[in-house]
Write a sequence for this structure.
């Protein structure tokens, strides 16, 4: 047998063995069976029970990168590179000088769309959730911040103000300028209000008070109305400044680190 064939087979064997060992050792479901308890710093916010959907999205991947778990939110953390298969190393994305001041976010719904797209946690693909029942469209691009988790077991939601609509599944750099506290059917569902850091028309905004009052009224009215024809109640509270948004992002990053990263470290 030619020497190059032997070398190739040996390399493939090493990759396969590394993948199997990594996948088994880092499977959060295995950690759960061993009663591993997540740890993290205390917070004034309530603790969130880890949803099984999140665990399954981490445990069933083998090739494609997952936009929630494999896209860096910003600066590289000490946990970078933990418990990923060799194949994922090639497909991860790194960008941004550091969260939460400037952070990556994944767009699920483009500005002007009436279709509600959302992340499928298992596959990492963007799926159609529904077409909005009301005669409204999303006023700006809408998506989530990777490597965050909130009280509803989903990543942190973000509305990104910019000039143009963006295709679902695209990621971009954004800056938080405010927080929109929202209660959706009795559950907390806050939204980060952000601007695209690379849009010359919006990137100079630093705080939500800098926005024209009419634009804020449009955003509020959209979220108050977009579920009315589904007989679902949504309550939008007063907008909060950029500092509150930054604190909320930090909190969601801490929760993610506690429930996901720390569980994989055990």
């Amino acid at each position: 047998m030619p020497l190059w064939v032997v070398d190739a087979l040996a390399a493939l064997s090493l990759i396969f063995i590394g993948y199997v060992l990594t996948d088994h050792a880092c499977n959060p479901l295995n950690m759960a069976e061993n009663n591993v308890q997540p740890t993290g710093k205390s917070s004034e916010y309530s603790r969130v029970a880890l949803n099984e959907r999140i665990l399954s999205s981490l445990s069933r991947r083998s090739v494609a990168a997952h936009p929630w778990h494999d896209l860096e939110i910003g600066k590289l953390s000490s946990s970078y590179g933990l418990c990923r298969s060799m194949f994922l190393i090639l497909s991860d994305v790194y960008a941004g000088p550091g969260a939460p001041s400037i952070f990556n976010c994944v767009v699920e719904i483009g500005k002007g769309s009436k279709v509600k797209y959302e992340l499928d946690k298992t596959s990492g693909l963007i799926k159609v959730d529904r077409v909005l029942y009301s005669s409204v469209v999303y006023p700006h691009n809408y998506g989530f911040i990777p490597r965050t988790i909130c009280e509803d077991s989903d990543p942190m939601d973000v509305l990104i103000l910019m000039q143009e609509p963006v295709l679902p599944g695209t990621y971009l750099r954004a800056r938080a300028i405010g927080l929109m506290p929202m209660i959706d059917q009795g559950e907390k569902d806050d939204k980060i209000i952000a601007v695209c850091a690379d849009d010359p028309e919006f990137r100079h905004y630093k705080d939500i008070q800098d926005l024209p009052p009419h634009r804020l009224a449009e955003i509020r009215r959209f979220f108050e109305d977009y579920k009315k024809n589904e007989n679902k109640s949504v309550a939008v509270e007063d907008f909060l400044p950029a500092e509150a948004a930054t604190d909320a992002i930090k909190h969601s990053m801490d929760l993610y680190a506690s429930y996901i990263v720390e569980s994989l470290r055990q």
Notes: The domain at 1-266 is CATH 3.90.80.10 (Inorganic Pyrophosphatase). Confidence is low (pLDDT under 50) at residues 24-43, 75-96. The two ends are 44 Å apart (CA to CA). The helical segments are 3-25, 28-33, 52-59, 86-89, 213-225, 242-265.
